[in-house]
Amino acid sequence: MTETLPPPSAPEVRQGWFSNWEARDLAPLISLAVLVLFFSFAADGFLKLNTLRLILQQGAVLGIVATGLTFVLLCGEIDLSVGTVALWTACACGVLSQELGPTMLGSTAIAIIFPLVTALLFGLLSGVLTVSSRLPSFIITLAMMYIATGLSRYITASQSFDLPPLLQDLGIHTFNVGGLSVPASALLTAAILIKGHIVLQHTRFGRYVYMTGGNREAARLAGIRTSAIVVACLAICAVTAGLGGLLNAGRMNKVSLDQNADLLLEAVACVVLGGTSLFGGEGGLGKTTIGVLTFMVLRVGLNQIAWIDDLMRPFLMGVVLLVALLINGFLGRRT
Description:
Layout: H1 23-42, H2 49-74, H3 82-100, H4 107-133, H5 137-156, E1 161-162, H6 165-172, E2 174-177, E3 180-183, H7 184-202, H8 204-214, H9 216-221, H10 226-252, E4 254-255, H11 263-274, H12 285-304, H13 313-334
Antiparallel strand pairs: 1-4, 2-3
């Protein structure tokens, strides 16, 4: 009699924001605490409410973009087009806003919704081409990166454009909460992070994302449509990139081609700093939140140290990021 083998096991999905954390999971928290302690002594005025406001306001865009990128990394893929999709969305919004005019009925809604729909199409196309061609997602999204850049240059003719007042207000408006000016953009980011966390940890789709990234063949044999999961994650990433692009342009009151130049690398750094694996199946938005805060504390803290030359700040930021990532990798090998 032939023995029946049990079905392949899927990786366990951790529940909760910070439940069941191991030693390597504590490394980002330790890095964040060390940076806060260091800058509280090295930077004058770091431990003030204004510093927290700056961290929240400047980190809002990264938090939104990193949310979608977390979905992609968890399913074992990568999206290199997030920065240029963000740029395209903002450029399309600026051009539409100028062409339609502020007095046209529904012009603001059209100027915002249409670019986000096109961002969604970018993500869907990247996902479909990735699973149908069986090429690595970084190759497909690299091509999408150049396509989005080219379209942005074409429709703007390298000019800058104003944005709808709604986006400008969202980028700079604050709410007074217990004496702290909380940026509206930070509240939007928090809502997106919470929603993404609920999806990942408390829905069937979220479990399938972890299973696809942890062991794609086992997930496929278990009956999961892994191709659909990959397409959905790349679509989510493109939409969050578009939202981040609109929010960033609103914060700057204008859209131009030099925006979002470092958005991809910074978002990847935030996700990896938090402890989400580049190989899929491990991580979450709780960790991404810690990574975003760590990255922004480092950036804001270095900017507040008067004796550091402006030309040296990128170098020092790179060194600290490298040390933090090496510590995370070292602890990861020991667990």
